[in-house]
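Just wondering, can you check both lines?
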Amino acid sequence: MGKGGALSNGVIKKILLSYTYVAIWIFLSFTVIVYNKYILDRKLYNWPFPISLTMIHMTFCSTLAVLCVRVFKLVEPVSMSRDLYLSSVLPIGALYSLSLWLSNSAYIYLSVSFIQMLKALMPVAVYTIGITFKKENFKTDTMANMISISIGVAIAAYGEAKFDSWGVMLQLGAVAFEATRLVMIQILLTSKGITLNPITSLYYVAPCCLVFLFVPWIFVEFPVLKESSSFHFDFVIFGTNSLCAFALNLAVFLLVGKTSALTMNVAGVVKDWLLIAFSWSVIKDTVTPVNLFGYGLAFLGVAYYNHSKLQALKAKEAQKKAQQADDESGRLLEEREGGDGAGKKSDSQA
C-alpha cells in the first residue's frame, strides 16, 4: 500500500512538473510575441526596425552565453572543429537570422491573431522539407492531412479583415526558413552526435546570427536610424524584452528536455488560441467568423498530426520494449542451457 501510494505521489508530482514547464513556456512565448508586437507596431511603441530588434536580442543572448561559458564556466563548451562549425552551425545560424528577421517584420503589417493562424503551416513546411531532404517518408494520409491544414489556413487568410500580402509573404518566408533550420539541425548536428543546450546553442549560433543580420541592417535600417535624431535607446524596454527572449530559449530547452518536443507542439496550439483571444479582446484586432472557421480546420489538422506523431512514438517505444524483452529472454535461456550443460558434465565426471 505504501509503495503504491509513493508511486502515485511520484506520478502526480511528475504530471504537475510537466504542467509547470508547459505553463512557463506558454507564458514566456506569449510575452515575447506580444512584447515584440508592442515595440514594432506603428500604433503602439512605434519602433518599426525588426532587424535592429533582432540584433539587440542576439547581442544580449551572445553576451550572456559567453559569460556563462567562458567567464563563469557554468556550462561546458561543446567540442567542435572549425570545419564542423562552418558546415553545420554557420548555415543554421543564417537560417535562424532570416527566420527571426522575417517573423519580427511581419508584426509591422499583420495582427498577432492572424500571424498565429499562419504559423499553423509549420508542420506542413517541416514535413515537405523533410521529404525533400529524405528525412521523412512520403505517406498519402500524412500528405492529405497537410493539405487540410493548408486549406484551413487559406480560408483563414481569405477571411482576414486586414489582409496585407507583403506581411503574409514575410510570415510564410519565416515559416519556411524556420522549418528548414529544424530539418538542418536534425541532419547536421543530431546525425553527428552533437547536442546543444540553450546556452551552448546561443554561444555558437547567436554571434553567427548577429554577423548575418549586420549586412542587411547596414543598408536597410542604419540609414533611417542615423537620420532619426528623436530616438533614444530605452534600456528598460529593450533590456526586459531581450531578457524575455533569452528566458524563452531556456524554457524551450527545459520543456523539451523534461517532457518532449511533441509536448511543446501541443502546448503551442494552446498558446496560439490564447494569443488569438488576447489579440481580439485586448489589442482589439478584428477576428472574423471565417478566420475562426479556417483556423479551426487547420487546428484539427495539426491536432491529428500531433496525435499521429504520438501514436508513432508509442509504437516505437513498444517495439523497443519488446526487443529488450526478447533479448533478455534469450540471455536467460542461454544462461540456463549453459548451467544445465555444466551440471551434466559434472555428473558425468562423478
In short: Confidence is low (pLDDT under 50) at residues 1-6. The two ends are 51 Å apart (CA to CA).
